[in-house]
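Entry type: protein chain
Record version: 2
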Amino acid sequence: MHIFCRKMGNQLLFLLLATAALVTASVYDDFPQWDPIHWLVPSTETIELSCYHPSYYPFNDLSKGHNIQWILPKPTSYRHLKPGESNEGWKVLNDTKYTLKIDKSIMNVPDAVNGMYVCAVLAPISDKSEIYSWYYLRWGVGLYTNVPAMNEGTIAQKYYMSFTYSWVSTLVAIVIFVLFAITVHFRYKGGPVLEVDEEAGSELSFTSKKSDKKGIDFDSGML
């Protein structure tokens, strides 16, 4: 039992140290293989979405686009807007990036802005090609708000609550284990001694009764 308790204690200690290492580890937000421009955007009072992206064709050279349209989310029945057009709180600017500007203050249903936005560009598949294709650049507004990765700040700030829950769960597990180990220890240590005392007492009582019985028989024989 002592060996089992010692092994469990070592495992819990290792788990606690591993959790502490995860919390205090230096984590970098930027990874070269990932797109530095996040496609998920918080749903604020005023939102601006760009049709420009430096890493993808033809969004890095919109001058090659022959037809550019913004497709609004499902709550708007996938309404299409071209550069210079506006509808309620949505407006597509006629600038070099064909920015879609969203203003909740002039909308009848502000929650309708949440969803997937798509900038569609019709452009040739290459510089010298006469074949055209549609290209899509997607933005998600107000999506996955319950995911820690959507929180603002560093990795430690984003996952602060998750780390806190891990610490609390680990401490509760340690307390339960300690109470269990103490209970088992005292029960294991004191139980057999108590049983021996009871057995010794019962044997002594049996011997005493047997002696009394012999004495009575002896006395009756004398009589």
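Comment: The beta strands are 40-41, 46-49, 67-71, 80-81, 86-87, 90-92, 100-103, 115-124, 132-141.
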